[in-house]
Amino acid sequence: MTATLLRTAADLHARARTGRRAVVMTMGALHEGHATLIRTARKIAGPEGEVVATVFVNPLQFGAGEDLDRYPRTLDADVELAGRSGADAVFAPSVDEVYPGGEPQVRISAGPMGERLEGAARPGHFDGMLTVVAKLLHLTRPDVALYGHKDAQQLALIRRMVRDLNFGVEIVGVPTVREEDGLALSSRNRYLSPAERRTALALSQALFAGRDRHAAQEALRARAREVPATRARAEALSAIGESRAAADAHAVATTAGGPAAVRAAARLVLDEAARLDPPLRLDYLALVDPSDFTEIGDDFTGEAVLAVAARVGATRLIDNIPLTFGPFGDAS
Hints:
Helix content is 40%, strand content 18%. The chain has helices at 9-13, 32-45, 75-85, 95-98, 118-121, 125-140, 152-164, 194-226, 231-239, 246-254, 258-273, and strands at 4-6, 21-26, 50-55, 89-91, 144-148, 170-174, 280-288, 302-312, 315-325.
């Protein structure tokens, strides 16, 4: 499938529409993660619908000292990959097309949620991101727009903007695509030297360590719920390979875990990576409520996001995974 390259909103609006239009917004330098978004959009739009991928490096999202000029621009390859993945068109407007007359005087504010984590590390980033997303939603006029879970805070803010400001568009999140070794796909991965890439693996390894610690805790809790808090607990745990005493097993299952243990397991990996050559320089490790990106407490129940951001060499990377915390309940 060959995607049509469009440079102006007028050209996009002139296209005949039959069925749903699904839009995937990118800053170019497309990779398999973007291809997955486009393939998902193709399924949602169906054979009668239309898939549009946008390619626009938004200057409002880059702060002082960030990599606007260095950001990779590979439009020809992007159009080819988008077409192979199922896009009907690639909308690649100029800065003047998106911001006629210069930088906009009126912008979208991300509010308090946009000042946390990525917003604290990159002041103004989310205001610029939401402003261009709002502009591109108006310019492309989609029925549905798709974004990756890797940028979890971005996705949460877009969903909040669409809800709070009554945009008539459905927002769909698509799971993070990873390389075989676990590294989340990113256009910035190409900046990493082989040694830096080995260090960068600590981001996903830390997340997986936190996830595995949580899974182990939940397994212990499930066992504790199945066995009464008596001598029979010790015998039953021993029979399945747990040699600790009943009281100790009960304490581990009921108290030693939760968000604090998840954070500790992830941080251990990151602390070790800080001693590598080259070292990993941590910006933040956070376990947050995805509704507002505030840190969760030890008594939290529900969906959460374990998120990390760090620098390796000159490259800044982010990653996250979802987790679910439930009440322990009565184990007796």
